[in-house]
């Protein structure tokens, strides 16, 4: 038989029985996903707040499993893959699991039996009281999701250190999909140690960085588990990891029904610690689920993208020999892992001796593992082979380059749709012209530079004069005239070519193309940004002295990378200048050119993009732009316009953005010193069937970003601005989460704002969160942990109180926040990571504590403890007044 007989998609599909083509639909029906085949499940659907968001529920039926998986994955719960259901069915009423239902990981077969295709026939579908295989659940959910939800699922899986889907099988529709787009958002960080010189952290996209790749596959039957072997290879001996799912992780789970043919990928990433680093450089590992004979197309792909392929089998048949013979001339290295005592030993040896010259192997490429083999020693041997191949000249491909090989073999690549490609081409036209980010901001995004800084300063002086109650005088008139001059100067400009292209991108009639364009812009701008030296692991406290005293309010706290927010900020300035002139009667309303800008930006907010509420470069609020956005929001939401505003404040590096992202599935920038510095807002939708119970239709979440520095600046313009901005954010809020860097002191600007608001009687519901406890196993807040926060405040907090003339009579924080030590106003959240990054998973304690905090916040909203909910018109008026 010729090699081509095995290498075509048609040959592969013809091997599947007709009944298999209905398996997918039956699985989708079982999981309640059949309605999402024509109209795919979207990211917004998955992130809606419902009654389930307030209870730690266990799935009771297969239809609950996709939603339970998504909820746990959003919370970065390491147990998200557990598909166990809680049913009120007597144990004796449950059907016995057939012994013949076998998974590829652990298969025992007597050598005397005839091995035929019957052992790979599909089992009956899972019964409602038997857990669905997690890989079936993952495949069904991915096949029911649009590209943006797929991307979110894969991103969250990567943070949980789960193996990621690379090739998604879909035998019913006769094509398999290479998930390049779904992997685009994954970023990998590792310790890079050059041969000479000092090592350092390196960060790159998972789809762009090259690494040696090792594939592990099964041929017919193997009594050795690929997944368990891979997990052992990836894990230091004292820190076992379960990146790849295997049957032993869930007793009683059904065999796979639709996931055979799935290819998963996981990476080993060095941390710079010799006791933890199994390999000195990043290494990728691929795992093909199912037998290579039934999934020849996927196997053929692995042979063309891998540095080496490990084939696990007990028996080599004549058919297998012919399949492998077709690989002659391949540059890939091949290794066999055999269990000869479970197979036909003499037959294996005969075929191996024939394959050795064909596949350019020697006897060292054949490994034998039987029950008496020392498992730890065998894992070390596999690691040594991987390390040896990686050190030698070998194939090193990025995921993007793997996608090229997939296309040549006829696999579908998710990124190849017309909308995605048009958006990518537009992004490339914009970023191709960006040679220097600072120069581009200065020359192309001109309005947000000096003109906006000067206008913001004049607006601040006007506001101070009005607040002081001074009668109108010549000075105020001059300020008003100067402001109009600055706005007229801005309005005389036309949008630069790059901004016009950006506006065209977000004006596309195709909603999907807009979303593709924004994601491409985020990644494209990140690629062209100038590399920044990584900040050494200082604490936030050690950074404070650098920013104390009199500081210009426009001073950069850290280099702000060029991002999508700068293009939107420029649009905001065009709208702001034009609106200011129209309001002053200097420009007829009929001559407006930019009145549609808020509507364009609002579309992005509704699709999950954070929009800037406070400009991080000037620490100012573009009032016309923000109110324009809110007016558009009011029109768009119509009858569902009841809002609760939730804000998070605290010094940079205290984990508030990660907390919000984990709690609500948001996309706020994370990482101190490397993201935008402004305050951003995102909208979270409440499900219609829950909005009446919760008392609101949407939650507007505001992240203060890097605005609150936490510096002890009892005097100075910087502190006054921080305090004013904190007052604005807290004054808009129904609920405020204060993220703390120390147990004793809250940032003085936050305390200052709190004391101001207390005088007005507007006191949001406060929750104080202290993260990164050394005791990572702490399950939640404990009374002894709360005491430091309830003690009299220290020097920093006292300084903030003195700004409000509280003097020595300042009360404890418990009094200020109306905290009851027995109630959950103060939270201690365990550390984010379980282990040492970059291979660490998110700790289960962190995930559970975040869920409990979210439940408490929603409970407070429902019980009316967060003050009266606002409609959008009230919020607009509050923004103007504050």
TrEMBL record:
Residues 640-880 form the VLIG-type G domain. The keyword Magnesium does not apply. SUPFAM superfamilies: P-loop containing nucleoside triphosphate hydrolases. It is found in: Cytoplasm; Nucleus. Signal peptide: none annotated. Residues 779-805 are annotated as: Disordered. Keywords: Cytoplasm, GTP-binding, Nucleotide-binding, Nucleus. Its main location: cytoplasm. It comes from the Eukaryota. It holds the Pfam family URGCP_GTPase. Belongs to the TRAFAC class dynamin-like GTPase superfamily. Very large inducible GTPase (VLIG) family. This is Upregulator of cell proliferation. It comes from Felis catus. The gene is URGCP.
């Amino acid at each position: 038989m010729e090699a081509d007989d095995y290498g075509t998609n048609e040959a592969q599909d013809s091997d599947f029985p007709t009944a298999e083509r209905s398996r997918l639909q039956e699985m989708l029906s079982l999981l309640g996903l059949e309605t999402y085949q024509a109209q795919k499940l979207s990211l917004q659907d998955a992130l809606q707040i419902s009654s389930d968001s307030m209870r730690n529920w266990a799935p009771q039926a297969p239809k609950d499993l996709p939603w339970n998986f998504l909820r746990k994955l959003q919370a970065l719960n390491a147990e998200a893959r557990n598909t166990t259901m809680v049913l009120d069915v007597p144990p004796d009423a449950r059907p016995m699991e057939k012994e013949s239902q076998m998974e590829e990981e652990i298969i025992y077969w007597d050598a005397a039996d005839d091995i035929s295709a019957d052992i790979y026939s599909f089992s009956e579908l899972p019964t409602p009281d038997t857990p669905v295989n997690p890989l079936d659940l993952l495949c069904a959910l991915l096949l029911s999701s649009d590209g943006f939800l797929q991307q979110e699922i894969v991103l969250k899986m990567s943070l949980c250190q789960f193996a990621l889907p690379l090739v998604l099988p879909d035998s019913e529709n006769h094509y398999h999909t290479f998930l390049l787009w779904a992997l685009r958002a994954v970023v990998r960080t590792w310790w890079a140690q050059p041969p000479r010189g000092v090592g350092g952290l390196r960060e790159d996209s998972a789809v762009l960085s090259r690494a040696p790749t090792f594939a592990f596959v099964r041929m017919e039957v193997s009594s050795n588990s690929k997944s368990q072997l891979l997990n052992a290879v990836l894990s230091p001996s004292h820190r076992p990891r379960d990146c790849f799912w295997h049957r032993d992780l869930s007793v009683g789970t059904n065999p796979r029904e639709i996931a055979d043919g799935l290819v998963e990928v996981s990476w080993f990433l060095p941390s710079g610690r010799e006791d933890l680093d199994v390999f000195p450089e990043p290494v990728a590992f691929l795992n093909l689920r199912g037998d290579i004979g039934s999934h020849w197309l996927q196997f053929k792909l692995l042979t063309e993208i891998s540095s080496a392929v490990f084939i696990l089998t007990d028996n080599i048949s004549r058919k297998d020999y012919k399949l492998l013979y077709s690989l002659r001339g391949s540059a890939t290295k091949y290794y066999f892992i055999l269990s000869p005592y479970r197979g036909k030993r003499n037959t294996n040896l005969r075929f191996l001796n024939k394959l050795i010259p064909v596949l350019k192997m020697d006897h060292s490429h054949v490994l034998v593992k039987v029950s008496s083999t020392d498992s730890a020693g065998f894992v070390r041997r596999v690691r040594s082979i991987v390390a040896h191949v990686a050190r030698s000249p070998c194939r090193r491909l990025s995921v993007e380059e793997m996608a090229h090989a997939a296309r040549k073999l006829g696999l579908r690549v998710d990124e190849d749709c017309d909308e995605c490609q048009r958006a990518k081409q537009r992004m490339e036209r914009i970023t191709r012209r960006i040679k220097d980010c600072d120069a581009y901001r200065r020359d192309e995004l001109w309005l947000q530079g000096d003109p906006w800084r000067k206008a913001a300063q004049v607006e601040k002086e006007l506001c101070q004069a009005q607040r002081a109650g001074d009668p109108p005088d010549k000075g105020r008139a001059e300020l008003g005239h100067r402001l109009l001059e600055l706005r007229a100067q801005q309005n005389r400009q036309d949008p630069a070519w790059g901004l016009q292209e950006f506006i065209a991108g977000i004006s596309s009639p195709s909603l999907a193309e807009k979303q593709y364009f924004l994601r491409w812009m985020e990644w494209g701008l990140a690629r062209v940004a100038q590399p920044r030296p990584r900040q050494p692991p200082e604490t936030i406290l050690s950074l404070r002295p650098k920013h104390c005293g009199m500081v210009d309010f426009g001073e950069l706290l850290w280099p702000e990378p060029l991002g999508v927010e700068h293009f939107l900020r420029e649009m905001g300035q065009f709208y702001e200048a034009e609106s200011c002139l129209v309001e002053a009667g200097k420009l007829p309303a009929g001559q407006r050119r930019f009145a549609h800008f808020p509507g364009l930006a609002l579309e992005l907010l509704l699709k999950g993009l954070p929009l800037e509420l406070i400009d991080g470069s000037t620490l100012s609020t573009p009032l016309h732009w923000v109110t324009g956005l809110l007016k558009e929001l009011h029109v768009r939401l119509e009858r569902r316009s009841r809002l609760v505003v939730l804000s998070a404040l605290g010094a940079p590096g205290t984990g508030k953005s990660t907390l919000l992202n984990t709690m609500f599935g948001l996309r706020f920038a994370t990482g101190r010193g490397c993201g935008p510095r402004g305050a951003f807002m995102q909208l979270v939708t409440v499900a219609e069937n829950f909005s009446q119970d919760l008392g609101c239709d949407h939650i507007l979440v505001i992240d203060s970003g890097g605005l609150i520095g936490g510096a002890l600046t009892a005097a100075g313009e910087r502190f006054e601005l921080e305090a004013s901005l904190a007052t604005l954010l807290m004054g808009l809020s129904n609920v405020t989460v204060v993220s703390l860097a120390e147990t004793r002191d809250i940032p003085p600007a936050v305390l200052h704002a709190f004391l101001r608001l207390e005088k007005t009687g507007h006191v949001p519901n406060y929750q104080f969160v202290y993260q990164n406890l050394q005791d990572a196993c702490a399950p939640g807040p404990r009374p002894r942990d709360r005491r430091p926060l309830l003690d009299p405040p220290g020097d920093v907090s006292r300084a903030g109180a003195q700004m409000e003339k509280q003097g020595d009579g300042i009360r404890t924080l418990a009094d200020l926040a109306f905290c009851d030590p027995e109630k959950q106003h103060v939270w201690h959240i365990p550390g984010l990571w379980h282990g040492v990054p970059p291979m660490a998973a998110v700790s289960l304690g962190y995930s559970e504590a975040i869920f409990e905090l979210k439940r408490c916040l929603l409970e407070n909203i429902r019980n009316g403890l967060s003050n009266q909910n606002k409609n959008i018109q009230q919020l607009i008026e509050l923004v103007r007044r504050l």
